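RETRY 2/3 - previous attempt timed out on the joint model. Re-submitting the same 379-residue input unchanged.
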Amino acid sequence: MFQALVNTASRLLNDLSRSWFRERFPAPEPAEAAPFLPRKYQRLERVVLTDEVSRTLFEEYAVHRKGARGDEETGWVLLGVRDVSEAVVLATLPAGAERSAGVAHVRFNCSGQALASRIVRQWDRRLIMLGVLHTHPGSLRHPSDGDYHGDSQWVGQLRGKEGVFGIGTADGTPAGGTLIARQPQPHMQALGELCLSWYSLREGDRNYRPVPVGLTLGPDLARSLHPVWVTIEHYADQLDRLCRQQAGVAFRVLSGPNGPALGVDVKLVAPGEVLRLVLCGDRAEYFLWRGDELLAVDPGEERVDRGVYLLLAELAGES
Amino acid sequence: MDFRPLNDTERRQLISALRGNAESDRAILMDRRDTTFAGTTEEVTDEEVISAIKSVPCHY
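RETRY 2/3 succeeded.
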């Protein structure tokens, strides 16, 4: 049966398929967790964004406003590192195309964000949930009463029982000349008409507190995932099941003939053998890499988690 | 072999690490050169992060 499933690749297929094995964005080396003793968190005195995180937020906010759903609210989950009195934002997870949103609310597609958090935490295990940035269509540069109702209960589960909350508005006054970011107040960033205002909220607080924002050089560790976000959302639940049940599942963003794709590697027992899924939109391809031999495989299954297990079962029968 | 009693700080740290390991599954770190105690890690699990992501409230 396995022979029926496996179509040994011709040289041409090999050449074509190998393009899927070129990494568009090589996965960074996993960061070693720095040893430290359990810390006592104090109130947040500062939020620091890396330059790429800051660019992501402004650029994607601008793109959102020009899009078909530009009148709706949108947002990002913010992951990063929490220090004693400072939070450094290192990754942005978009609300997703499958978000529920309107002119007065946004609820993120958490399935896509959950899978993305698994992926970026493969690259840096220190990343934790820091908070959320969401936009307001009008000029309210402060979280609303409705925001407080949910956030005040939610922050209790965060490290330090405190969260970072950003509000995006498009009510700024663009300065003339070359477009550069300004910081009109310690807790505000402005670029053209777009403003990001930053607050913190700790468990038990009666209101949000403006928190000074700073910039540092650094990456947005999730930025390489944004071009494949539709794919991430499409396969989120299936891949999440796979990750929970199967150790050694690794992700990377690949460049291929049809644009960027999400690569999912499942290590096999034999050294150097890998089962790689290449996911692009709702299209899934399976490849078995055995040393120098590359095989295209079709398990004939729509769900990728079932497809992987069918192939693993066939491979187990082979041995 | 060098036997010496731990000082107060080392003892507190080791007890804290053992407690963290027993109660919260925190790893106890070892110096790879001489296997001495090198602290503990406050590693956050995927489940903790995903739980926080999945419970993000609706924003208005």
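The first helix of chain A runs from residue 2 to 5. Closing ticket.
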